[in-house]
Amino acid sequence: MTEILIQKAYNEVKKHRNMVINDPYRLRYHLMPPVGLLNDPNGLIQFKGIYHVFYQWNPFETTHGAKFWGHYTSEDMVHWREEPIALAPSEWYDKNGCYSGSAVESDGKLYLFYTGNVKKEDGTRETYQCLAVSENGIDFEKLGPVLNLPEHYTAHFRDPKVWRKDDHWYMVIGAQTLEEKGTVALFHSKDLYHWEEAGIIAGSEMDGLKDFGYMWECPDLVHLNGKDVLLVSPQGLKPVGDFYHNLFQSGYFIGELDYKRMKFPHGAFTELDRGFDFYAPQTFTDESGRIILYGWMGITDELESYQPTIVNRWVHALTIPRELELHHGKIFQRPVRELKKLRKNHVVVETNKFEGISAELIMDFVKAGPFKISFRNEAYLSFDSDRLTLERRNLMSGNLEARTCKIASVSKLQIFMDHSSLEIFINDGEEVFTTRYFPNPNDSIISVEGEADFKLIKWHLGDDGE
Ligand code: FRU
Q1: Which of 61, 273, 335, 395 could disulfide-link to 278, CB 3.0 to 4.6 Å?
Q2: Is residue 177 part of a domain?
Q3: Is residue 466 part of a domain?
Q4: Strand, coil or helix: what is 18?
Q5: Distance (Å, whole) CA 466 – CA 449
Q6: Same-domain pairing of 206 and 317
Q7: Which one of 23, 40, 159, 277 is the catalytic residue?
């Protein structure tokens, strides 16, 4: 069963490879599915020196379905190898999807935790938290479910993220209570195989939060600069001011996990990204101690089926890796330094109009003031007094749509452009805007207008000439 399913997926990759790689919107330095649909980053880890990125993958369609875990490895997070499929939805406990999860190392082996998604004939759902193990980090043996659904949650119970502290293992799971409130459940274990529930550590209508969504997906608890930070992707928030304008959000709560009482008193929720396409991020700590985040540069919303890459049989990508730091109660996100390896042809730009498709722009502002940048006549970043706005064309209506964020001043912009994406880091990662956009492939004009004065450096990114 497993072999047949995996072979079917490889056949699909082979059959469409040419069409996929020749898509004008194919990205140059982002992780993408070889065919089909990619969503969440999974199982992020540096294992025996090698970086591993797994991802939610439907090889057969550009819609969501029974997910596989695709797999890439790298020595430097810049050059990637496509590895054999890590997990396929072949068993009774994961037959409708090997859903999101995480990776840990123990005794020199790589363990994957993931959610086995099962849909029954009557339309109801079952969920199993499953384990798989590998000696070499490439070939995985499934060990089956290690945790069944506790009674007090609905079957929306998934995305185990596991970590070790002292001699214990801990796991957070995104869950929905029977009252349909989004929460995060905490479990602990001595051996990775037997898990005990510690309780709910955060959720809608808890700890000073009002109604905060009907489901929380992809929780992640990370120790950052002396604090514990709970990252989570809540579903069901309504827009408030400049916030929560995407269908689903991703953000974090800063607090302190009391490992004795298993409680997590925490502060307010902060969105991680202010753009259009960012969801289900996950972090890992690499061997040098950096906390690195990948997000899905996409989201499940009404625009998903309008993505123009679908005609060429692929959809979505991951973000570039970002290093996290906590300053004055706020996460700052910066592109990992390894991405400098992509830089080619350093240019000091001295005109208001120049060209770039796959490029990194660094703008250091020497005089503040309003400005507007046009990216290939399809997306616009503008700043006026204390508001930064990113506009792009809505894939369904064709009209411009905007995301806005309040910011006192803009002193620096670092912008990663790829053939159909923008990742804009403001003031060394104080805010980030991530978006896909689909300009005319022949339009490479970037223009800047306004009163602000800046020094602008441009690099071409990637191996192709431009
Ligand atoms: C988030 C998510 C997860 C789930 C996975 C399924 O995008 O819905 O909660 O595990 O995607 O692909």
Answers
A1: 273
A2: yes
A3: no
A4: helix
A5: 24
A6: yes
A7: 40
Q: Is the pLDDT of residue 466 over 50?
A: no
The verdict on whether 40 is a catalytic residue reads yes
Q: CATH number of the domain at 233, please.
A: 2.115.10.20
Domain range for 362: 343-461
What does pTM read for this prediction? 0.97
Q: Which atom of ligand 1 is nearest to the CA of 218?
A: 9
Q: Return the CATH number at 398.
A: 2.60.120.560
Q: How far is the CA of 67 from the centre of ligand 1 (A)?
A: 9
Averaged pLDDT for residues 221-243: 97
**Residue 231: is it exposed, middle or buried by C-beta count within 10 angstroms (0-12/13-18/19+)?**
buried
Domain match, 209 and 349 both: no
* pLDDT beyond 70 at 114: yes
d(CA 371, CA 382): 6
Number of domains composing the chain: 2
* CA nearest neighbour of 455 among 311, 341, 304, 346: 346
Could you give the C-alpha distances from 388 to 402, 408, 420, 425, in angstroms and in order?
10, 10, 21, 12
pLDDT (average), residues 431-451: 98
**Chain centroid to CA 155: how far?**
23
Q: Which of 335, 353, 388 is the last residue of a domain?
A: 335
The CA distance from 349 to 347, in Å, is 6
Closest ligand 1 atom to residue 299 Cα is 7
Nearest CA to ligand 1 atom 6: 99
